[in-house]
């Protein structure tokens, strides 16, 4: 069923179950990267105080009401309120020129071949060159600096003999850049989670959030799914990026405030299903298993 069709309210046990599902991968990340439990709880307490403070304009009774709303004792609330306040909403990151050049290279028709794949480009020249590509995005950063950044991130290669630049990856997932990967994690998952929470707390219509899920797939079928998803993502990017660039340019010269930000994502997750004993399944289900369809 669609993710947005959940009941408007949840029982405490359902909320706890949902929280456990969210916290498991977070705990895995913290343990794998050696983040102490004390730091995790500190960040959680700060987040709870920030959330409660956002809805508490009465400064005179703020500590008491935040303590009551969160269950954190008054002394801790006072300590946390005295600290530098953290933004309640996720702030957009500073502009990444490398990201914009990468996106333009994979979507602009003049830099793609007949199959729609990014073309290998001469490093310099007046035509469809990397220099032209970079300057179409910005004139504030030298094209060579942008190229060096893409090469460092493992996204492009430079052939010095032919003086040609080739894009070697079809998605902006920097290799060996842990700081940028942490940034992607926080921003992508943070925005997705924030949208899901706003849907649950509201009418379920604020943000688009849908998923298709299926089980009882073989490893061979999963590889075919990977290829299909990659193709769908390329189609989405090639359709969306030029349109977003057009809208940005239109709004830049318009009279309306440009104070809205947007993130559009596509994700997949796969895992091995736990073994299930045939005797545990109802007879009717055992007979109908071969006719199962993916669910949304």
Sequence-ordered SSE layout with sheet pairings:
Elements: H1 12-32, H2 37-54, H3 62-70, H4 74-82, H5 97-107, E1 121-122, H6 130-137, H7 143-152, E2 156-159, E3 164-167, H8 178-201, H9 219-252, H10 283-288
Antiparallel strand pairs: 1-3, 2-3
Can you describe this structure?
The N terminus is likely disordered. Among the domains are: about 70 residues, no CATH class; about 90 residues, no CATH class. With about 300 residues, the chain is mainly alpha-helical. The longest helix is centred in the C-terminal third of the chain and has 34 residues.
In short:
By secondary structure, the chain is mainly alpha-helical. The protein is built from ten helices and three strands; from the N terminus they run αααααβααββααα.
Low-confidence stretches: 1-8, 88-94, 285-291
Helical fraction: 40-55%
Q: Going across the major beta sheet, what is the strand order?
A: 1-3-2
Would you report the number of β strands?
3
> How would you sum up the major sheet?
3 strands, antiparallel
- DSSP summary: helix tally: 10
Structural class: mainly alpha
Distance from N terminus to C terminus (CA atoms, Å) equals 5 Å
Shape: globular
| Beta-strand fraction estimate | under 5%
Q: What is the H/E string?
A: HHHHHEHHEEHHH
Rg, alpha carbons: 24 Å
Whole-number mean pLDDT = 82
